[in-house]
């Protein structure tokens, strides 16, 4: 495609409609050009596929941030046509990102105040409300709650009706081999939407639910490595505010919030030991939109705690597969990177430590800790207590018969740019995320996770709280890696060919 070719807004719009329909496996007629793109539920890989296709069409690289500053196909097409007209003087599309003050974003609605009796039963809730039940960690938390409690679990699900919502919940648990039909009557779908006021269920149902629920687990969040804060705020930040509102309304209900170690991504914490109950006041240097929303959302939860709401916070790292079965989310960043690097034949030689924790450990720890009275007001770190180096992972993969080398990061980036040109390689759609440069330092997102830029996350207090529970994080050893590799190969995700 010639770099000098120009396209009208109408032509770009038609192209985007076609490609979005293709990615979502719907007909172009089902795409509304005035609908917010975030409402189509694109994941990171899908969004980046469209970005790459736009780059090929237009002859310049649309910034992932630009893509989501214009929230509909109609508006974005118009903006891109203007950018397209300017390619004779500049090859790259640049947009000035507004200065974002996360501290100013962390404001909880003043009307949200705990109501009713503050005396709560943490250990034996009868009715539980849970978000994120159609996600990966949420599925395993449901499984643990069904096994460890007798509670009825009300799950928020975005669906057209109750039947569809129920089907989504069960299919999600089935795909991870953790569904048991005997629990069907205890799993109650609530049709709603995290991104809507009153969680999309209407004020009357919201108030009725608030009187019936005893405990809340909030694990849902829109995870996308392309979207900026502005595109994730509604679901992740305002959604958390609505969950807090539910926890405070009518009667006090303990809120168990699944946050992230990403709240300490500011370079102010680089090289420092960060303990569970340390404050996280620094946000400058957090560039990933998802991480920014987790910082603000946890601040809102903390504010609610100061107003008298019983809160407990859980901060997991990247979450790995089930340590017993190897079953995992093959669409997560870790697995896509591994598969893409294997296809390239190389990993970047960088100083990374794998602090990933098996999903069964994280879910068991969350449910156990949530039922301890002394956990109220506490935060817990669920990353692996004995992380392994990226180099040790590569060495293990080699023993399995894969041909793989570690090369300097800059050389690996060059290979990514020049050699990964096929969408069959997962890194093709991850290129905008891996290569986009941020801040005055012009560093990429992977640069931000080098050990020299990361804090040392202590989980000493968490391990102490788990003492006597028999819950132990499995070692990242040959047995665990064999379990994971075997599953990925049996599932057809990885292949020696």
What does it look like?
By secondary structure, the protein is α/β, with parallel strands linked by helices. The chain has helices at 9-24, 44-58, 64-69, 73-85, 102-105, 136-148, 162-175, 203-212, 229-248, 289-306, 333-344, 359-370, 390-399, 409-419, 426-435, 445-448, 460-465, 478-490, and strands at 127-131, 152-157, 187-191, 215-218, 255-258, 273-274, 311-315, 319-320, 346-348, 353-354, 357-358, 379-381, 388-389, 405-407, 437-438, 443-444, 456-457. Helix 7 (162-175) links the parallel strand 2 (152-157) and strand 3 (187-191). The radius of gyration is 23 Å and the shape is globular.
Task: Break the fold down into its secondary structure elements and pairings.
Elements: H1 9-24, H2 44-58, H3 64-69, H4 73-85, H5 102-105, E1 127-131, H6 136-148, E2 152-157, H7 162-175, E3 187-191, H8 203-212, E4 215-218, H9 229-248, E5 255-258, E6 273-274, H10 289-306, E7 311-315, E8 319-320, H11 333-344, E9 346-348, E10 353-354, E11 357-358, H12 359-370, E12 379-381, E13 388-389, H13 390-399, E14 405-407, H14 409-419, H15 426-435, E15 437-438, E16 443-444, H16 445-448, E17 456-457, H17 460-465, H18 478-490
Parallel strand pairs: 1-2, 1-4, 2-3, 4-5, 5-7, 6-17, 7-12, 8-11, 9-14
Antiparallel strand pairs: 10-13, 15-16
Helix pairs in contact: 1-2, 1-4, 2-15, 6-12, 9-10
């Amino acid at each position: 495609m010639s770099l000098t070719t120009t396209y009208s807004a109408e032509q770009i719009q038609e192209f985007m409609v076609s490609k979005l329909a293709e990615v979502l496996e719907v007909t172009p007629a089902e795409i509304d050009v005035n609908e917010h793109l975030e409402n189509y539920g694109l994941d990171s890989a899908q969004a980046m596929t469209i970005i790459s296709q736009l780059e090929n069409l237009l002859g310049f690289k649309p910034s992932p941030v630009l893509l989501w500053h214009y929230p509909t196909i109609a508006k974005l097409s118009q903006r891109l046509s203007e950018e397209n007209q300017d390619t004779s003087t500049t090859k790259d599309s640049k947009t000035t990102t507004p200065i974002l003050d996360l501290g100013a974003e962390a404001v909880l609605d003043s009307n949200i105040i705990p109501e009713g009796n503050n005396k709560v039963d943490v250990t034996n809730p009868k009715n539980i409300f849970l978000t994120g039940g159609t996600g990966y960690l949420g599925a395993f938390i449901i499984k643990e709650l069904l096994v460890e409690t007798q509670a009825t679990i009300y799950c928020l699900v975005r669906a057209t009706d109750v039947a569809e919502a129920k089907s989504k919940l069960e299919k999600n648990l089935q795909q991870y081999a953790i569904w048991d039909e005997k629990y069907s009557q205890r799993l109650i779908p609530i049709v709603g939407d995290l991104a809507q006021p009153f969680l999309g269920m209407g004020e009357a149902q919201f108030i009725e639910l608030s009187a019936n629920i005893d405990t809340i687990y909030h694990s849902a969040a829109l995870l996308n490595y392309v979207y900026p804060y502005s595109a994730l705020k509604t679901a992740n930040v305002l959604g958390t505010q609505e969950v807090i509102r539910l926890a405070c309304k009518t009667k006090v209900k303990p809120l168990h919030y699944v946050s992230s170690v990403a709240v300490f991504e500011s370079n102010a914490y680089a090289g420092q030991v960060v303990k569970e109950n340390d404050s996280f006041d620094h946000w400058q240097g957090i560039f990933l939109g998802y991480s920014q929303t987790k910082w603000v959302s946890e601040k809102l939860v903390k504010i609610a705690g100061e107003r008298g709401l019983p809160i407990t916070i859980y901060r997991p790292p990247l979450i790995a597969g089930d340590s017993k079965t190897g079953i995992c989310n093959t669409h997560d960043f870790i697995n896509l990177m591994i598969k893409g690097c294997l296809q390239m034949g190389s990993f970047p030689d960088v100083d990374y430590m794998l602090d990933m924790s098996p999903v069964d450990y994280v879910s068991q720890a969350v449910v156990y800790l949530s039922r301890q009275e002394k956990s109220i007001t506490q935060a817990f770190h669920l990353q692996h207590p004995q992380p392994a180096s990226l180099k040790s992972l590569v060495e293990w993969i080699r023993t399995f018969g894969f041909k793989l080398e570690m090369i300097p990061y800059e050389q690996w980036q060059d290979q990514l740019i020049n050699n990964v040109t096929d969408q069959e390689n997962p890194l093709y759609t991850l290129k905008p995320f891996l290569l986009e440069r941020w801040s005055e330092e012009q560093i990429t997102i992977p640069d931000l996770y080098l050990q020299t830029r990361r804090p040392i996350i202590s989980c000493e207090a968490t391990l102490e709280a788990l003492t006597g529970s028999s819950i132990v994080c499995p070692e990242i050893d040959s047995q665990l890696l064999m379990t994971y590799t075997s599953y990925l190969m049996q599932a057809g995700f990885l292949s020696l060919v």
